[in-house]
Amino acid sequence: MQKQQPLTVPQLADVTSWDSMKTWTKTIYQFLKDFLRVDKDFKDQLVAEITPLYGDFSYTPAAIANGSQSSFTIPVANAMPGYTVIGSYGDSLQGVSASYTVTAPGVVTVNLANNTGGSVTLNPSKFRVYVQPRVLV
């Protein structure tokens, strides 16, 4: 993104005649117009950066044997590797560990690891993931 140049405020002391008053008025009008545009662009960018991205996946599981893992992907538009992911499941994970990672642009991978000591079959439900676009710097 191109760096914005600071806006310069015209000074009233520069007004020495009627013509310079008209010029000053036009300049201050343009300044205010530019200021409002820059302010809107900033707010739009800020909202885009702090609004989480979302994806979900209806999961109909098979049994996960003790000591094994299962994984699948959830599409999340605009997600990029390195973004923070928070995930949830609509039912109990019954001791199965779930981890969520953006593994490719637009793809969140869910890894399920069963270290419970026995085979586990989760109840059918929905995985939901929220991806935080990036850290504000």
Shape: rod-shaped
* Structural domains: how many: 2
CATH architecture of the largest domain: Distorted Sandwich
> In the CATH scheme, what's the topology name of the largest domain?
Deoxyuridine 5'-Triphosphate Nucleotidohydrolase, Chain A
* Annotation field: number of helices: 1
Average pLDDT taken over every residue: 88
The class by helix and strand makeup works out as alpha+beta
Q: Strand tally, please? A: 6
Unreliable stretches covering 5 or more consecutive residues: none
Strand order of the largest sheet: 1-6-3
The residue fraction in helices comes out at: 10-25%
List keywords for this structure.
137 residues, alpha+beta, Deoxyuridine 5'-Triphosphate Nucleotidohydrolase, Chain A, 2 domains, three-stranded antiparallel beta sheet, rod-shaped
Describe the protein's architecture and organization.
By secondary structure, the chain is an alpha+beta fold. The protein has two domains: 12-49; 52-132, Deoxyuridine 5'-Triphosphate Nucleotidohydrolase, Chain A (Distorted Sandwich). It is 24% helix and 31% strand. The chain is built from one helix and six strands, in the order αββββββ. It has one helix at 18-50, and strands spanning 53-59, 69-75, 84-89, 97-104, 107-113, 125-132. The strands form two sheets. The chain has a three-stranded antiparallel sheet, with no helix packed on it. A hairpin with a 2-residue loop joins β4 and β5 (107-113). The protein is rod-shaped. It starts with 17 loop residues before the first helix and ends in a 5-residue tail after the last strand.
